[in-house]
Amino acid sequence: MAKGKHGHHGGAWKVAYADFVTAMMALFLVLWLTAQDQKIKEAVERAFRHPFSSPNPGATGIIQTKDPQPVTGEKGKWDSSSAVELNLLRKIAEDLLNTLPANPDNPAEQSVKVDLLPDGVRISVFDRNKKPVFEDGDATLTAYGRWVFETIAWELSRGKRFQIELEGHSESGREISSEDYGLWELTSDYANTVRRLLVKSGVADTQFAKVAGHGASRPAPGKQPEDPTNRRVTVFVRIAKEK
To answer: Which listed site, 35, 211, 225, 235, has its alpha carbon 20 to 30 Å from 165?
Structure first.
Protein backbone atom coordinates (compact mmCIF):
# COMPACT_ATOMS: atom_id res chain seq x y z
CA MET A 1 0.00 0.00 0.00
CA ALA A 2 1.41 3.37 -0.95
CA LYS A 3 2.08 5.94 1.73
CA GLY A 4 -0.11 9.02 1.95
CA LYS A 5 0.96 12.35 0.67
CA HIS A 6 1.93 13.44 4.18
CA GLY A 7 3.13 10.05 5.43
CA HIS A 8 6.61 11.25 6.34
CA HIS A 9 5.21 14.07 8.50
CA GLY A 10 2.55 12.18 10.43
CA GLY A 11 4.35 12.68 13.76
CA ALA A 12 4.65 16.44 13.57
CA TRP A 13 1.38 16.97 15.44
CA LYS A 14 2.79 14.99 18.40
CA VAL A 15 5.74 17.35 18.72
CA ALA A 16 3.47 20.38 18.52
CA TYR A 17 1.15 18.88 21.12
CA ALA A 18 4.07 18.16 23.47
CA ASP A 19 5.25 21.77 23.15
CA PHE A 20 1.72 22.96 23.91
CA VAL A 21 1.46 20.79 27.03
CA THR A 22 4.88 21.96 28.25
CA ALA A 23 3.91 25.61 27.78
CA MET A 24 0.62 25.07 29.64
CA MET A 25 2.43 23.38 32.52
CA ALA A 26 4.90 26.28 32.77
CA LEU A 27 2.00 28.73 32.78
CA PHE A 28 0.27 26.72 35.49
CA LEU A 29 3.40 26.74 37.68
CA VAL A 30 3.80 30.51 37.30
CA LEU A 31 0.16 31.14 38.16
CA TRP A 32 0.39 28.75 41.13
CA LEU A 33 3.54 30.42 42.47
CA THR A 34 2.12 33.94 42.24
CA ALA A 35 -0.92 32.82 44.23
CA GLN A 36 1.13 31.41 47.14
CA ASP A 37 1.87 33.15 50.41
CA GLN A 38 5.18 34.79 51.19
CA LYS A 39 6.70 31.76 52.95
CA ILE A 40 6.31 29.58 49.85
CA LYS A 41 7.83 32.28 47.66
CA GLU A 42 10.78 32.65 50.06
CA ALA A 43 11.33 28.88 50.03
CA VAL A 44 11.43 28.83 46.23
CA GLU A 45 13.81 31.81 46.18
CA ARG A 46 16.05 30.11 48.74
CA ALA A 47 16.12 26.95 46.60
CA PHE A 48 17.39 28.96 43.60
CA ARG A 49 19.90 30.89 45.71
CA HIS A 50 21.34 27.72 47.29
CA PRO A 51 20.57 24.88 44.86
CA PHE A 52 22.90 22.44 46.62
CA SER A 53 21.43 22.94 50.10
CA SER A 54 18.58 20.79 51.31
CA PRO A 55 15.47 22.03 53.11
CA ASN A 56 15.60 18.90 55.24
CA PRO A 57 17.47 19.22 58.54
CA GLY A 58 18.84 15.70 58.07
CA ALA A 59 20.70 16.52 54.89
CA THR A 60 23.64 18.60 53.77
CA GLY A 61 23.72 19.56 50.12
CA ILE A 62 22.03 17.01 47.87
CA ILE A 63 23.28 13.96 49.77
CA GLN A 64 21.38 12.61 52.76
CA THR A 65 23.62 12.33 55.81
CA LYS A 66 23.31 9.59 58.40
CA ASP A 67 24.63 11.72 61.24
CA PRO A 68 23.77 15.36 60.52
CA GLN A 69 25.22 18.05 62.74
CA PRO A 70 22.61 18.78 65.38
CA VAL A 71 21.52 22.21 66.47
CA THR A 72 22.59 22.22 70.09
CA GLY A 73 20.26 23.90 72.50
CA GLU A 74 18.51 24.24 75.81
CA LYS A 75 14.85 24.19 76.73
CA GLY A 76 13.07 27.48 77.01
CA LYS A 77 9.59 28.71 77.84
CA TRP A 78 7.66 30.43 75.07
CA ASP A 79 4.20 31.96 75.02
CA SER A 80 1.74 31.16 72.24
CA SER A 81 2.15 34.58 70.62
CA SER A 82 5.78 33.75 69.84
CA ALA A 83 5.14 30.24 68.47
CA VAL A 84 5.36 31.30 64.81
CA GLU A 85 8.56 33.29 65.35
CA LEU A 86 10.09 30.45 67.36
CA ASN A 87 9.39 27.92 64.61
CA LEU A 88 10.85 30.29 62.02
CA LEU A 89 13.91 30.88 64.19
CA ARG A 90 14.53 27.15 64.53
CA LYS A 91 14.05 26.70 60.78
CA ILE A 92 16.57 29.48 60.14
CA ALA A 93 19.07 27.72 62.41
CA GLU A 94 18.61 24.49 60.43
CA ASP A 95 18.94 26.31 57.10
CA LEU A 96 22.17 27.96 58.22
CA LEU A 97 23.64 24.62 59.25
CA ASN A 98 22.78 23.15 55.86
CA THR A 99 24.03 26.17 53.89
CA LEU A 100 27.13 27.37 55.71
CA PRO A 101 30.27 25.22 56.01
CA ALA A 102 30.58 23.18 59.19
CA ASN A 103 33.24 20.76 60.37
CA PRO A 104 32.14 19.28 63.72
CA ASP A 105 34.80 16.55 63.47
CA ASN A 106 37.54 19.19 63.52
CA PRO A 107 36.44 22.19 65.63
CA ALA A 108 39.72 23.96 64.89
CA GLU A 109 38.61 24.34 61.26
CA GLN A 110 34.93 25.03 61.92
CA SER A 111 33.83 28.41 60.56
CA VAL A 112 30.26 28.65 61.84
CA LYS A 113 28.57 27.22 64.92
CA VAL A 114 24.84 27.54 65.64
CA ASP A 115 23.42 27.00 69.13
CA LEU A 116 19.81 27.14 70.27
CA LEU A 117 19.44 29.09 73.51
CA PRO A 118 16.47 29.24 75.90
CA ASP A 119 15.56 32.63 74.45
CA GLY A 120 16.83 32.44 70.88
CA VAL A 121 19.79 31.43 68.71
CA ARG A 122 23.52 32.15 68.92
CA ILE A 123 25.50 32.13 65.67
CA SER A 124 29.27 32.13 66.13
CA VAL A 125 31.42 33.01 63.11
CA PHE A 126 35.10 32.22 63.69
CA ASP A 127 37.97 34.07 62.04
CA ARG A 128 40.24 31.11 61.21
CA ASN A 129 43.78 31.49 59.94
CA LYS A 130 43.12 29.09 57.03
CA LYS A 131 39.74 30.62 56.20
CA PRO A 132 39.74 34.20 57.53
CA VAL A 133 36.59 36.26 57.84
CA PHE A 134 38.49 39.54 58.30
CA GLU A 135 41.66 40.86 56.75
CA ASP A 136 44.69 40.47 59.00
CA GLY A 137 44.93 43.27 61.56
CA ASP A 138 41.80 45.22 60.65
CA ALA A 139 38.03 44.89 60.40
CA THR A 140 37.76 44.64 56.61
CA LEU A 141 35.74 41.59 55.60
CA THR A 142 37.28 39.08 53.23
CA ALA A 143 35.27 37.81 50.25
CA TYR A 144 34.54 34.67 52.27
CA GLY A 145 33.48 36.74 55.28
CA ARG A 146 31.09 38.80 53.16
CA TRP A 147 29.52 35.64 51.78
CA VAL A 148 29.01 34.15 55.25
CA PHE A 149 27.37 37.26 56.71
CA GLU A 150 25.31 37.94 53.58
CA THR A 151 23.93 34.41 53.90
CA ILE A 152 23.12 35.04 57.56
CA ALA A 153 21.51 38.37 56.66
CA TRP A 154 19.25 36.79 54.05
CA GLU A 155 17.98 34.31 56.64
CA LEU A 156 17.53 36.89 59.41
CA SER A 157 15.64 39.29 57.14
CA ARG A 158 12.80 36.75 57.04
CA GLY A 159 11.71 37.71 60.57
CA LYS A 160 11.12 41.38 61.33
CA ARG A 161 10.37 40.70 65.02
CA PHE A 162 13.85 39.30 65.62
CA GLN A 163 16.06 41.30 67.97
CA ILE A 164 19.76 41.08 67.13
CA GLU A 165 22.90 41.55 69.24
CA LEU A 166 26.41 41.56 67.80
CA GLU A 167 29.58 40.96 69.77
CA GLY A 168 33.18 41.04 68.54
CA HIS A 169 35.85 38.99 70.33
CA SER A 170 39.57 38.30 70.05
CA GLU A 171 42.27 36.28 71.74
CA SER A 172 44.64 37.87 74.25
CA GLY A 173 48.25 38.62 73.40
CA ARG A 174 47.45 39.50 69.81
CA GLU A 175 49.78 42.11 68.36
CA ILE A 176 48.22 45.25 66.91
CA SER A 177 50.39 47.60 64.84
CA SER A 178 48.99 50.85 66.26
CA GLU A 179 49.50 51.93 69.87
CA ASP A 180 46.24 53.88 69.85
CA TYR A 181 44.25 51.02 68.36
CA GLY A 182 43.93 47.89 70.49
CA LEU A 183 41.76 44.81 70.79
CA TRP A 184 38.84 46.77 72.23
CA GLU A 185 38.74 49.01 69.18
CA LEU A 186 39.32 46.14 66.75
CA THR A 187 36.54 43.93 68.13
CA SER A 188 34.15 46.88 68.23
CA ASP A 189 34.94 47.47 64.57
CA TYR A 190 34.32 43.77 63.89
CA ALA A 191 30.79 44.08 65.26
CA ASN A 192 30.03 47.36 63.49
CA THR A 193 31.37 46.11 60.16
CA VAL A 194 29.05 43.12 60.39
CA ARG A 195 26.13 45.36 61.40
CA ARG A 196 26.60 47.55 58.33
CA LEU A 197 26.73 44.53 56.03
CA LEU A 198 23.62 42.97 57.59
CA VAL A 199 21.69 46.23 57.13
CA LYS A 200 22.90 46.55 53.54
CA SER A 201 21.76 42.96 52.95
CA GLY A 202 18.18 43.41 54.17
CA VAL A 203 18.15 43.39 57.98
CA ALA A 204 16.33 46.40 59.47
CA ASP A 205 18.59 48.75 61.43
CA THR A 206 15.91 48.99 64.15
CA GLN A 207 16.35 45.29 64.93
CA PHE A 208 19.76 45.80 66.53
CA ALA A 209 19.62 45.99 70.32
CA LYS A 210 23.37 45.80 70.97
CA VAL A 211 26.61 46.16 69.02
CA ALA A 212 29.73 45.75 71.14
CA GLY A 213 33.37 44.71 71.16
CA HIS A 214 34.74 42.81 74.15
CA GLY A 215 38.42 42.67 73.27
CA ALA A 216 39.91 39.54 74.84
CA SER A 217 37.77 39.73 77.98
CA ARG A 218 35.31 36.94 77.08
CA PRO A 219 36.99 33.76 75.84
CA ALA A 220 34.86 31.14 74.10
CA PRO A 221 33.49 28.45 76.46
CA GLY A 222 36.25 26.06 77.49
CA LYS A 223 39.02 28.05 75.78
CA GLN A 224 42.08 29.75 77.24
CA PRO A 225 42.28 33.55 76.70
CA GLU A 226 45.20 33.21 74.25
CA ASP A 227 43.47 30.56 72.09
CA PRO A 228 42.98 31.82 68.48
CA THR A 229 39.50 30.27 68.57
CA ASN A 230 38.41 33.31 70.57
CA ARG A 231 38.67 35.45 67.43
CA ARG A 232 35.03 35.52 66.41
CA VAL A 233 31.80 37.47 65.97
CA THR A 234 28.71 36.21 67.77
CA VAL A 235 25.23 37.00 66.50
CA PHE A 236 22.48 36.60 69.10
CA VAL A 237 18.98 36.42 67.62
CA ARG A 238 16.01 36.66 69.96
CA ILE A 239 12.29 37.20 69.54
CA ALA A 240 11.42 40.75 70.50
CA LYS A 241 8.94 40.99 73.35
CA GLU A 242 5.63 42.67 72.80
CA LYS A 243 5.55 46.21 74.17
So the answer is: 225
Which residues are within 8 A (CB) of 16 and not within 5 positions of it... i.e. 6 or more apart? none
Mean pLDDT of 39-46: 63
Total-model pTM: 0.66
Phi/psi for 106 (5° steps) reads -135, 85
Find, among 146, 164, 145, 161, the residue nearest to 201 by Cα. 146
- Which pLDDT band holds residue 123 (cuts at 50, 70, 90)? very high
Looking at 3.30.230.10, 3.30.1330.60, 1.10.260.40, 3.10.129.10, the CATH number of the domain 73-239 comes to 3.30.1330.60
Nearest by Cα to 194 from 159, 228, 154, 234: 234
Indicate if the pLDDT at residue 31 is higher than 50: yes
